[in-house]
Structure formats: C-alpha cells, structure tokens
C-alpha cells in the first residue's frame, strides 16, 4: 500500500476510533494519524493471528473490512495508551 493510502487509512481509523471511544482523548491530527496507523497494524496483526494462527506483523488494506479492523485496533491502542497515562508511565 502506498504512503497516501496509509495516511488516509490512519486519519480515517483514528478519527472514527476517537469518536467511538468514550471520554476525552485529546491530541491533534498528527496523534490521530499515528493512532490510526498503530491501530491498522495492531488490528491487522490480531486479525492474522485469529484467522491463520500465525503471529505476523501485517497491516490492513484500504477496504471496508480493513477500515473496520483498523478502527478496532485503534480502539485497543487508545485503551492501552490511556492505561499508561493513568499509571504515570508517560
């Protein structure tokens, strides 16, 4: 996937995940982009693990199922990030 598609998927997945997740997450467009890209990798890796049984670092594609998986991954990333912030690790 080219870099433009990664940016589109990252912004889309990060923005939707921030809108779905309850509470205030803060951050700007760059943090939303990074959250979406991390979510795409996290969601793609988990989807690959569940479907094939192999742990491989993969990302989702710019398709409807790919966006859904990226959003789920971004929600998981928000949850993990907030746990680090609440504990004072960051």
Indicate the topology.
Elements (H helix, E strand, L loop, with lengths): L2 H18 L8 H24 L11 H24 L3
Task: Give structural notes.
The chain has 90 residues and is mainly α. The chain has one domain (3-87). The protein is 73% helix and 0% strand. The chain has three helices and no strands. Helix 1 (3-20) packs across helix 3 (64-87). The chain is globular, with a radius of gyration of 13 Å.
Kindly summarize this structure in a few lines:
With 90 residues, the protein is mainly α. The protein has helices spanning 3-20, 29-52, 64-87.
The strand count comes to: 0
Name the average pLDDT.
80
Strand proportion, as a percent range, falls in: under 5%
How many domains make up the coordinates? 1
The H-and-E topology, N to C, reads as HHH
Described by strand count, sense and barrel closure, the largest sheet is:
none
* Helical proportion, percent range: over 70%
Structural class: mainly alpha
Overall morphology: globular
The N- to C-terminal Cα distance equals 32 Å
User: What is the quaternary state of this protein?
Assistant: single chain
Whole-angstrom Rg? 13 Å
Low-confidence stretches: none
Number of helices: 3
């Amino acid at each position: 996937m080219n870099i433009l598609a990664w940016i589109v998927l990252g912004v889309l997945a990060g923005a939707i995940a921030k809108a779905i997740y309850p509470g205030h997450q803060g951050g700007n467009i760059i943090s939303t982009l990074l959250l979406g890209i991390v979510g795409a990798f996290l969601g793609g890796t988990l989807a690959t693990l569940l479907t094939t049984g192999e742990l491989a670092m993969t990302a989702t594609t710019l398709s409807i199922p790919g966006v859904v998986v990226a959003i789920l991954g971004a929600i998981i990333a928000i949850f993990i990030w907030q746990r680090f912030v609440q504990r004072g690790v960051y």
